[in-house]
Structure formats: C-alpha cells, structure tokens
Amino acid sequence: MTSGLRPGPLLLLLLLVLPGSEEACPSICLCVSDTVSCSSSGLTKLPLSLPSSSITLDLSHNYLSWLFPASFKRMPRLENLRMAHNQFVSLGLGVFRNASGLRRLDLSSNKLQVVEQHYFQGLWRLEELLLFNNKITQVEGGTLSGLSSLKKAYFSINQITDFPFFSIRDHSHPFLSMLDLSSNRMGRLPWEDVKALPGLVQRGLYLHNNSLICDCSMYSVFWHWDLRGYESLMDFVDEHTCVVYGNPRASIRFLRHSRLFRNCTVEKPVSLPVAVLLSHVVVTEGEGVRLDCQTSLSGTELSFTWLSTSKGHITNTMNDTLISLFANGTLEIRATKVNDTGLYVCTAADIKQSLNATREVNVTVLLPAAESFNTGYTTLLGCVVTTIGVLVYLYMTPCRCRYCKQPGPQAIPVATYDPSGLSSVFSTSMRDHHKRQTDKHVAFMEPMSEEGTEWVLES
Prior knowledge:
Blueprint (H helix, E strand, L loop, with lengths): L6 H11 L12 E3 L2 E3 L18 E3 L21 E3 L21 E3 L7 E2 L12 E3 L7 E2 L12 E3 L23 E3 L10 H5 L3 H5 L1 E2 L5 E2 L2 H13 L2 H4 L7 E2 L7 E2 L23 E9 L4 E3 L11 E6 L3 E3 L8 E3 L5 E3 L8 E9 L4 E12 L7 H22 L32 H11 L3 E6 L5 E6 L1
Parallel strand pairs: 2-3, 3-4, 4-5, 5-7, 6-8, 7-9, 9-10, 10-11, 12-13, 15-22
Antiparallel strand pairs: 1-2, 13-14, 16-20, 17-18, 17-21, 19-20, 21-22, 23-24
C-alpha cells in the first residue's frame, strides 16, 4: 500500500507562495493574461479584489450604478475600461483618481444625463471616449479640459442641444481628429466657434441627424466642408438636413437641394484645409535630433507651437535643458531618451490671415544595440595570444649575452671496444647496464672544463 501526499501542508504551501488576495481573480470574472472580463455577470457593485496587473477591464452589461472615489487606484496599469450597458446616471467626484493611465474609456449605453466637468479630470492620457447612446442633454464647458491626448470622442445618439466648441483649440487638443455629435437635438449652433475649431477637428466633425435651423451661417460652414470633400459629409449626404422656419416637418436635405440658399453670401474660408505632413524618425538613445516645422504656410510672421504625447506643451520656458525651440519652428532634442518616444505635433499659425497648418513627426528612440561581437572578439584574441605564446616557446631561443660562455657542441656518445663485454651476454656488468637502461633516467651534458665534458645523471 502506497502512501500519498497529505493535502493539508501542500495546500498551505501553495497559499504562501501564490500572490495575495489583491492579485486573485474574482470567481465571477474571467482572467486571461492582462485582461479581466466581468461582462454579463450581474454585478451591482465593483468587485473588491481585481488583479493589479490588468491592462483591460470589461465591466459591460451589468447593473452598476455607482463607483466610489479612486475606484481603480489598485490597477496602475489599467488602460482600457469598458463599462457600457450599465445603469450609471452620474459619476461621483474623483472616480478616476489615480487612474491616469487610461487610454480608452467606454461609458456608452448608460443613463448619463449631464456630463460634468469633473468627470474626467486627470485623464490626460485618454485617447478615446465613448459616451454615445445615453440620455445626455448637457455637456459642461470644462468637460474636455485637460484631455490633451484625446483623439476620438463619441457623443452621438443623445439629447444634446448645445456643445462647448469654444473649449477645443489647437493647443488644448492637438490630436483630436473625430468628434461625433450626430443624432442629437442641436438646432442653432455657435457657428463662429465651429469655424474656429482646429482643421483636424472640423474634418472629423459629425453633425448629421440633428435639428439644425436652415440659415446662411450654417450653410456657409457646410458649403466649405463640402468643397474640401470631408468624409463626415460625403458619407452622410442624405442624413444632413435642416429645418425651414423652425418647422420640424419642413426639413430639407440641404447638401442636395441648395436653392434655398441662393441669396446667401459664402464667406472666404477662415482657414485653409489642414495640410498635415507626416514623417517618422528613428534615433538611438543619447543621439540628438532636430524636428522641423515645415508646413504649407510661408511667411515671416508665423508662430509655432509644439505638443507631444510624452511631454505635453513644449516651450522654451521648460526646465529641460536638452530641448530648444528655434524661431523658425525647429525643435531640437540634444540627447534623446527612451521616454522621448511619441508623436510630436507642430502647428504653424498665421494670425493675420487666420490660417494654420500642422506637421506631425513620430519619434522612436531605441536603446543602443548590444555589441554582439564582443564574445567572439575576445575568444579570437585569446586564441591569437595563445598561439603566439606557443610559437615563442617552441622556436625562439633564450637571449644570449656576450659575456656568457657558449655551450660546446653536443656530445655524441661513442661506443668503445670493451673485451670484457664480449665474454657473456649474461655477465654482471651487462645486467647492471640493462637495469640502468630500464630506469629511464635522462642524462644532461654540462661543460665542466675546456678540456672535456662530463655526464651528469639526473633522476
């Protein structure tokens, strides 16, 4: 009968070795690598223990309605947070405190009513914000403030009547290329603020399926966008409608039927189509790099601003002594580091003519390549030194000095005639000689005098 291992001590050992409760995966969730999925788990509150190494957390399709302050502070690596299809009506203060690493936040298909300005404070790395299919009626003015890395924002399928376009500028949102406000209830918009938006934002601004009021200000904006071939218009030509005289039943597809606006004076474009020059630069850590700001604009009264995903707004007043800005817009980094990797955006602006253009440079800083030949080179050098040593030992004679006596010629033993040696092969002298032969001693000959030599026996 064999005896098995006792489960008690083994289980205790595993509990001591495995990570603590903070790293444990909740029983109702699925944890795979750096992804935690608690989707469709019937959650009414956030699980207390979640793996701190998680990068993606999926809490969608549950019944969450409230989050406590700093709910995700124990997940410093969190980048993707999905909370779609829950019951959120509002978010408390500091919900995302200590979660500045978030890059994608999905709060779509909830019951949010007002997007307050404190909701997303501190999320300066956030790149994608999804708030579509809620019940939002108002977006407060400072809602997007501080979201300097934002690229895409989705506010469609809500009940929004107004939007703070004035809060979006080149210096505040240099990477924003999509703003979806379609399928809302917006009527009269501040068109001057819309025309002042950065060119990238205008190119990706979606306003179809709204209750826009037909007037010349509105038509002037869309006429210029249509002239430039913006995809936000080309993809939804029939969905762009406006209401005539405020009557919801009297709506027209103004991109196809423009006769109503024949008496409108189309203004000169406020800004040229944005010419975005893209380039990629790869340098090794420690090397210097210069990023020029060559755009479609030319002139002597241009102003330049640089922004980076890793450094934010770059100015000459920064404490970084390795960065310099020149009058022609060139940005110099004298000794690059790995954390300098990222997208650098330069905006050239002509204030007098209200023109701007953008240049984007993607910088990649690599660590210095390891010298792979070191081991082989060292081995080769060792072999050469060893070979030279062997050759010296085998072929080179010791140094001779003129005051030293030169050794005489090597003595050659000469066999002499000894009659006694012929008496018998078994004589005593022959046996002793044979014995001395079998002892395998080595004889060295040293000069003892000028007259002759003497055999010296060394054992």
